[in-house]
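Homework-ish question, so no full write-ups if that breaks the rules, but can someone show me the predicted structure for this set?
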Amino acid sequence: MATEALAPPAAGAGPRIKSELTQQRLRAARWFLVPMLIALAVVAGWPLLRSIWFSFTDASLNNLYGAEWIGFGNYLRWQVLESGTVRWRGLLVDGAWWNAVWNTVRFAFTSVFFETIFGMIVALVLNAEFRGRGIVRAAILIPWAIPTIVSAKMWAWMLNDQFGILNDLGMRLGLLSQKVAWTAQAETAMTAVLVVDIWKTTPFMALLILAGLQMIPKDIYEAADIDGVHPVKQFFRITLPLVRPALMVAIIFRLLDALRIFDLIYVLTPNSVATKTMSVLARENLFDFDNFAYGSAQSTLLFLLIAVLTMLYIWLGKVRFDGGDR
Amino acid sequence: MTATFDLWKFTKSVLFYALVVFIVVVSVFPFYYAILTSLKSGTDLFRITYWPTSFDLGNYASVLNQGSFPRNLLNSVFVSAVTVIGALFIAVTASFALSRVRFRGRGLLLMTILAVSMFPQMAVLAGLFEVIRALGIYNTPWALIFSYTIFTLPFTVWVLTTFMRELPVEIEEAAIVDGASPWVIITRVFLPLMWPALVTTGLLAFIAAWNEFLFALTFTSSNDTRTVPVAIALLSGGSQFEIPWGIIMAASVIVTVPLVVLVLIFQRKIVSGLTAGGVKG
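A: Not a homework solution, just the prediction itself:
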């Protein structure tokens, strides 16, 4: 494969020259990687370490450098009251934080679940041959291309309680008995967020699954047809197992993306406790409430949680990121 | 017998096309409705219609003439373009090293790059804020160009690495026999072959930078330095209850149309770029 080291140059080149060549390439490779490594260290590595460090201090927005080390105080600390009872404080016993964790996890798993199903349906449609396939593929790229903030605003308008077209449509079709304040009510806010997110990201899922579907050789289906295997059975016995590697990678990508969601929720349902996710809460503490250290602790915990979930997924699902083609 | 068979086939294709129409309508409708709303003004806005009823460019005029929206558009173009060019510049050499040279720790390095691109950006926000303040670039476009590198660079490196890996060894061999150095190989042999991949990757990175919200919201603080997503999110009327929907929709359409046009023109390339970044990694 092209990834292997180059084959030694043809006849005439001795082992000395070959190793010299390899040496030269290795040296060049090292220099080629340096700019990228420096850039990543400055924008990702160092800030990550600093964020974690801040979470163990009492830093505030206006006093970043005077911060003092307070150990695990932001995560968990206790106070013994005069009456002798112990009061626990900190992130690990903070109801608002666990509410945000629950919102994030609930949001991520529900949205990815529906996106996978709808994405599979759209991918199967696009994998069939029919007239107008190009139009469908172009159409599904539109939600993907629209900026998240813009789609949040578009849907906020469509979901508007008084003048929203979705309430109007629902009433006309007899699905709703009265107009609903989708984004404002606690009971429906999460549904509203989910609908917009699923609408926006199903195309991405569909395209990734479609790429997987197109790698399945057609003659397998021809053979199955000759044997009279029912199409539904074909799907579960042939399509699903063969598309699984691509599907698993698509799911982990979407899951990681959903677990860090910020923009859609910040714009569509501002200040709603029913949808506030870890990212929204952490940013609020960092920059709006001037709890810089506490916000850092939240972002650190968010990072840890996502890291653990990802490793579990890769390990349990035996995911291979090269698409299983090597 | 044949009649029922045909009927079944007919029903099947009707159902299939119904599904196709449903997919298209659901995908396109919100954008269509935004355009429709942006062309209404006054009380027309609050009359729900499913078809275009008026053609009033007033909202566009007020978005483009008042406030800092034109400035925000320029900021977005500048930030996204510089970010992408910078990322591509660093990524070309790095992905040559990652795809064509075998060295120890290459697999680990690739996984690290992938991890950084899937990183929750919230995890670095506090530290990044400190770095940006220390560099003195807070509330300037450079703060965004700097911070956007965290997602554009790993993405471009990853996609270009997958692309270069697939180029045959032979094209390099001839150059090596002629005694070309790795730098010459990149600039003379690979770059000419990589234009399509560079365009695709650059376009995808551009879209990601154009759409970014969290960093733009955090690292800029005045109307003149904001990018369009933040400007749109913060567009508001005289009071909390008076949201200027017509203007918001006009701004949304202005921001989205170039993207939709680009995406439709480069459809095939984008799909292949997305899947290279996704399925294969």
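Now go work out the reasoning yourself. Hint: Chain A touches chain B through 106 residues (CB under 8 Å).
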